């Protein structure tokens, strides 16, 4: 079984991050996470201070999620930040009103992707479940991937949202060879609510997902849980331990 470096998306602990920024980063590192998707530090914290803390904790900034349903991003500032901290990826998510809207936004994605490539970075589109709505018999996500240049726009697929959209994550990922360098791994509870679950605690088959990820060239697995029934740090620790138990972590923390 292929082993991956494991990163965390701190949206899972967003409330704690706002209350104790550096303490939250420390707790994530103590769980064992090797990487983090992180943006510019909060007011009062410099990029140099953030990077010093991350370096001391052994946390590598993998990339940043730049925006949700907006192209209004100071990309030059974000590019400078990622160069400073060593991140490689820029991701966004969008909403779509129609096929024509999706086609227009695909064109814009290519434009942003070209800017990212010029800056030495890789641009990613992060999906939710609504990209599995169909226009003329085609998923919005398939349309986006067809209408964007793979050299400019890659994918940050999210396993939970693929399943919520009605597709098998392992099978869908297997069709995206060399297109999905980062994979958001999150699980789904059984039952009608289909609530978020810790990785390995729900209904998704992460051995099959990992096999597909390895086959398409995924570089990092990124753990995220949008909402938790437990303390979010406990949820992230459970996900990490379960990934370790599946032998999917490149350098598992000894405490697990």
UniProtKB/TrEMBL annotation:
Quick check: keyword Membrane in the entry?
no
Q: List UniProt keywords, sorted A-Z.
A: Isomerase
- The protein's superkingdom reads Bacteria
Gene3D superfamilies the record matches: Divalent-metal-dependent TIM barrel enzymes
Q: Which Pfam families match?
A: AP_endonuc_2 (PF01261)
Q: Which InterPro entries does the UniProt record give?
A: IolE/XylAMocC-like, Xyl_isomerase-like_sf, Xyl_isomerase-like_TIM-brl
Q: Where is the Xylose isomerase-like TIM barrel domain?
A: 25-225
Which molecular function terms from Gene Ontology are attached? isomerase activity
For whether the record's keyword set contains GTP-binding, the answer is: no
PANTHER family xref list = HYDROXYPYRUVATE ISOMERASE (PTHR12110), INOSOSE DEHYDRATASE (PTHR12110:SF41)
Name assigned to this protein: Sugar phosphate isomerase/epimerase
- Give the originating organism: Cohnella xylanilytica
């Amino acid at each position: 079984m292929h082993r991956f470096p494991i990163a965390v998306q701190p949206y899972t602990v967003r409330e704690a991050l706002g209350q104790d920024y550096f303490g939250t980063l420390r707790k994530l590192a103590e769980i064992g996470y090797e990487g983090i998707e992180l943006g510019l530090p909060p007011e009062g914290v410099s990029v140099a201070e953030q990077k010093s803390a991350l370096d001391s904790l052994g946390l590598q900034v993998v990339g940043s999620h730049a925006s949700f349903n907006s192209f209004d991003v100071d990309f030059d500032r974000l590019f400078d930040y990622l160069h400073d901290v060593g991140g490689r990826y820029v991701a966004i998510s969008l909403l779509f009103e129609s096929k024509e809207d999706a086609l227009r936004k695909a064109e814009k994605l290519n434009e942003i992707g070209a800017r990212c490539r010029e800056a030495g970075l890789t641009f990613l589109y992060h999906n939710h479940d609504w990209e599995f709505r169909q226009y003329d018999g085609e998923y919005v996500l398939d349309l986006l991937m067809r209408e964007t240049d793979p050299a400019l726009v890659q994918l940050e697929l999210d396993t939970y949202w693929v399943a919520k959209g009605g597709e098998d994550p392992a099978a869908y990922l297997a069709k995206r060879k060399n297109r999905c360098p980062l994979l958001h791994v999150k699980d789904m509870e059984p039952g009608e609510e289909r609530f978020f679950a810790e990785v390995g605690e729900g209904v998704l088959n992460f051995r099959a997902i990992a096999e597909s990820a390895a086959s398409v060239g995924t570089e990092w697995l990124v753990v995220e849980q949008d909402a938790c029934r437990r303390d979010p740090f406990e949820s992230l620790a459970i996900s990490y331990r379960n990934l370790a138990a599946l032998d999917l972590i490149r350098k598992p923390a000894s405490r697990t």
